[in-house]
Amino acid sequence: xxxxxxxxxxxxxxxxxxxxxxxxxxxxxxxxxxxxxxxxxxxxxxxxxxxxxxxxxxxxxxxxxxxxxxxxxxxxxxxxxxxxxxxxxxxxxxxxxxxxxxxxxxxxxxxxxxxxxxxxxxxxxxxxxxxxxxxxxxxxxxxxxxxxxxxxxxxxxxxxxxxxxxxxxxxxxxxxxxxxxxxxxxxxxxxxxxxxxxxxxxxxxxxxxxxxxxxxxxxxxxxxxxxxxxxxxxxxxxxxxxxxxxxxxxxxxxxxxxxxxxxxxxxxxxxxxxxxxxxxxxxxxxxxxxxxxxxxxxxxxxxxxxxxxxxxxxxxxxxxxxxxxxxxxxxxxxxxxxxxxxxxxxxxxxxxxxxxxxxxxxxxxxxxxxxxxxxxxxxxxxxxxxxxxxxxxxxxxxxxxxxxxxxxxxxxxxxxxxxxxxxxxxxxxxxxxxxxxxxxxxxx
Length: 444
What we know:
- The chain is an alpha+beta fold.
- It folds into three domains: about 1-110, Trigger factor ribosome-binding domain (Alpha-Beta Plaits, 2-Layer Sandwich); about 150-250, Chitinase A, domain 3 (Roll), CATH 3.10.50.40; about 260-425, Trigger factor, C-terminal domain (Trigger factor, domain 2).
- It has 13 helices and twelve strands.
- The protein has helices at about 20-35, 50-55, 60-80, 135-145, 200-205, 255-260, 265-300, 305-325, 330-340, 340-365, 370-385, 390-400, 400-420, and strands at about 1-10, 10-20, 90-95, 105-110, 125, 150-155, 165-175, 175, 185-190, 215-220, 235-250, 425.
- Strands 6, 7, 8, 9, 10 and 11 form a six-stranded antiparallel β-sheet that branches.
- The chain starts with a strand and ends in a 17-residue tail after the last strand.
């Protein structure tokens, strides 16, 4: 076997390979033996069909399999020997192999560019006090109590804080209904608005209505709406209030705690504190990782592998299409929206590809990897609680090559964990918190 490697760009490699006639013959023999294994052919014992018979009767299949063997095996050997890691599955270009002749093919694929990686020991990130605030603790307690809350229909007043409402809402721009802003029997709960916080657009409309009444209002189309041409525009809201239900939380007693699976109210409070603390820590980590990545990417400039950019571009548009279909948008609306999203989707894809490339380069330097067994465990965990058959999902993922993308994403996640874990955590100043212990148990 002879081969040559040419770096055609900072992120692309071209590989040219020539296999000898002897290597081609071995591949044909191997392919024929694999085809004949277990085959039942009249006049021969099962699995004992001569190789030349298989080659004669199944010539096209043998040639196709031998070509795949030659291309895959030789590329894997070369890439391993040269220490090259393609970012996408390699595809060979060339004529099918012919027994008795040399077989030549070529392949072009993306690789990681040179990235100026940081010394992890020099990194730091500002994080807030991990102790959860009083508002978060009480919100988590209320969330627990809502599992055994009662709801009473209200017909003699307008909606108030904590009421559960059922509404029909129509959101339109120039008379056109907007997917995601139009729904019947939509349920929402009115929550108190904190001082200085933005009042939800629906609040002033529904708070002015009695059951059965209709109200109108205006909202601004949000910045994350799929169609960028509608963002920032005024959306006309038409709302009908169908139902008001008053939330009745149970008293803070041992009996209530027992309904929720705890022996005492103090046990419930302890669990609430632990869950709130854990949720706060996860939020701190998410925000800390995001800040670290933003800081690193802001100082770096490197070429992006086009295969990654195109992959994330397709994913972004696919997610938008899925959202619009769930909102029952018609085909023309979906098509027009995706066309409007082109520039934004490309910008999103390039930003995501930059972060992905940085973390893959970091993983390569730090020796971070994910074995096939670990990827399979991830597949198995995906089936838990979903009713999916593990073997069917596993077969699909391996046959479609999704397993490679899964391993890559797991590597990226581990690289981000390594980045955040190595950074020095600097505690931000925080206000004094009122103790959660002030929440007292009520009398029976």
